Amino acid sequence: MLPKVLSSEKKYQGRAFTVRVDEVEIKPGVVSRLDIVEHTGAVTLLPLDEAGHLWFIRQYRHSAREWILELPAGTLEPGEDPRVGAARELQEEIGMRAGKIAELVGFWLAPGYSTEYMHLYLATDLTPAPLEQDEDEVITVEKLSIPRALELAATGELRDSKSLIGLLTAARRFGW
Questions:
Q1: Is the pLDDT of residue 16 over 90?
Q2: Is the pLDDT of residue 134 over 80?
Q3: Which residues 6+ apart lie within 8 Å of 136 measured at CB?
Q4: What DSSP state is assigned to residue 116?
Q5: Which of 46, 58, 53 lies closest to 145 in space, CA to CA?
Q6: Is 137 noted as a catalytic residue in this protein?
Q7: What is the dihedral angle through the alpha carbons of 73, 77, 80, 83, rounded to the nearest 10 degrees?
Q8: Residue 162 near residue 71 (C-beta atoms within 8 A)
Q9: Using CB atoms within 10 A of its CB, is residue 144 exposed (0-12), middle (13-18) or buried (19+)?
Q10: Within a 13 Å sphere around the CA of 50, how many CA atoms are in the beta-carbon half?
Q11: Catalytic residue selected from 9, 50, 132, 135
Q12: What is the 3-state secondary structure of 38-91?
């Protein structure tokens, strides 16, 4: 049986997410106040070209105060099909269209406090088809060999969780 939600109140509505506070009876007689980040969901892409290179981006992430190497990703519009969002993000972030997009896995990004669910796709048969990048993003594209990407994961130089999940899921599935 799921815990009982006694109340739920929206505290903040931003561009990318909403914050609400829920009072939840976790078990009989035990009530917890939980801060929840409501999110529409997101996609991450593992773009693989015919030469065997994985396409990453390097983007400034203000919360981390550094330029982060990561796989292309983005937030879904409310009600947007994840496959459609994945195709859009690929074009916006690396300027490529995928002839094939296959879902690898889905996962909760931070289920302790967020509703954000991430869909991970393998994108292949890449052809140039750029869309304008989001106004608030400064992105550079970096192509890495699979061994180099795995080396960066193993040494801790690749530190973005969605990128690690994507790379390591694909490595296991495809025997890299």
A1: no
A2: no
A3: none
A4: -
A5: 53
A6: no
A7: -10
A8: yes
A9: middle
A10: 5
A11: 135
A12: ECCCEEEEEEECCCCEEEEEEEEECCCCEEEEECCEEECCCCCCHHHHHHHHHH
- 70-81 confidence digits (pLDDT tens): 999 999 999 999
Write the pLDDT tens digit of every residue in 76-116: 999 999 999 999 999 999 999 999 999 999 999 999 999 99
In the chain the domains, ranked by start, together with CATH numbers, are 4-38 (no CATH), 42-110+117-174 (3.90.79.10)
Helix, strand counts (H, E) of the chain: 3, 10
Q: What tokens does 75 get? A: 């937030």
In this predicted structure, the answer to whether residue 136 has a pLDDT above a threshold of 90 is no
For the segment 127-132, the average pLDDT, to the nearest whole number, is 88
Q: Cβ distance 119 to 108 under 8 Å?
A: no
* pLDDT in the model for residue 133: 75
